[in-house]
């Protein structure tokens, strides 16, 4: 498990390109037969990838989180962004097709991840937050989750928003997660942008062509920076930072938040005129 420490905005604005990438960019999430985890001190969230190919992979506790089991004091959101697979939670099997979501509550002990086929293996993207109470393990299929259309082709940000783990969907302690899909011909996400000082956020970009690139914007509104990203990469957004971007083609991204509250609309909008 890799550790990432919190940064002050006064420090971040002096980072070089490489330093920005070291602090905020998460690469190589899906290593065959392994669990890749990054622990950020931004609200103590853990981001990771699990990629079983020919054998099952377990998500277990570790000395780094001082826990015998991974969910001893945590809750977990799982999205499958690969071929179909299963997650076994304390002996109960949950089948996840592509883009399906599974929430696993605090206190669950055994977590086993498997692919249905080694020719098209599953890729499980996970976000975990601290939890003080237990909510039931719940699956939400992509096909059945409500959707909302946002933006327009005229502003190159026509997109479909789907909320999975939130106040009116899968219940959780503090984790909020969803997925946004850009339509063909649209490239901008979350613009006009915002910050929310009460929660951190992480974006995971996927369904980008191999040679496409995402230009993710971050930083204080008057001190913006950017990271160049590719398919299957994630970026940590501190509470003081904007989080938006544009790519060289359409794509999908999973957003995950944790912090003081679960209110999706608790955000401070940033006027275009304020950006620098």
UniProtKB/TrEMBL annotation:
Belongs to the KduI family. NCBIfam families: PRK00924.1 (NF002091). InterPro entries: KduI, KduI/IolB_isomerase, KduI_N, RmlC-like_jellyroll, RmlC_Cupin_sf. Binds 1 zinc ion per subunit. Keywords: Isomerase, Metal-binding, Zinc. Its cofactor is Zn(2+). Its EC number is 5.3.1.17. GO terms for molecular function: 4-deoxy-L-threo-5-hexosulose-uronate ketol-isomerase activity. It catalyses: 5-dehydro-4-deoxy-D-glucuronate = 3-deoxy-D-glycero-2,5-hexodiulosonate. It is an enzyme of class 5 (isomerase). This is 4-deoxy-L-threo-5-hexosulose-uronate ketol-isomerase. Zn(2+) binds at residues 194, 196, 201, 243. Pathway: Glycan metabolism; pectin degradation; 2-dehydro-3-deoxy-D-gluconate from pectin: step 4/5. Catalyzes the isomerization of 5-dehydro-4-deoxy-D-glucuronate to 3-deoxy-D-glycero-2,5-hexodiulosonate.
């Amino acid at each position: 498990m890799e550790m990432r420490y919190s940064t002050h905005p006064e420090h971040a604005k002096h980072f070089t390109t490489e330093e920005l990438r070291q602090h905020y960019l998460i690469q190589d999430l899906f290593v065959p037969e392994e669990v890749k985890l990054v622990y950020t001190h931004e609200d103590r969230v853990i981001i990771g990838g699990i990629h079983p190919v020919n054998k099952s992979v377990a998500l277990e506790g570790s000395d780094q989180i001082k826990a015998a089991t991974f969910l001893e004091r945590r809750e977990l959101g799982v999205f499958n962004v690969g071929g179909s697979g299963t997650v076994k939670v304390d002996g109960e099997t949950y089948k996840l097709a592509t883009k399906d979501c599974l929430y696993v509550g605090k206190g669950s002990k055994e977590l086993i991840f498997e692919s249905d086929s080694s020719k098209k293996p599953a890729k499980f993207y996970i976000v975990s937050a601290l939890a003080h109470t237990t909510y039931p393990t719940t699956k939400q299929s992509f096909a059945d989750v409500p959707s909302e259309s946002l933006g327009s082709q005229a502003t190159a940000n026509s997109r479909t928003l789907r909320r999975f783990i939130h106040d009116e969907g899968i219940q959780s302690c503090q984790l909020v997660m969803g997925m946004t899909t850009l339509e063909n011909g649209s490239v901008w996400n979350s613009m006009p942008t915002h910050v929310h000082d009460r929660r951190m956020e992480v974006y995971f970009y996927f369904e980008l062509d191999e040679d496409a690139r995402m230009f993710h914007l971050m930083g204080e509104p008057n001190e913006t920076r950017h990271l160049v990203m590719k398919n299957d990469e994630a970026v940590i957004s501190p509470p003081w930072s904007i989080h938006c971007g544009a790519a060289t083609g359409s794509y999908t991204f999973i957003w995950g938040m944790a912090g003081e509250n679960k209110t999706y609309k608790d955000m401070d909008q940033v006027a275009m005129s304020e950006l620098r």
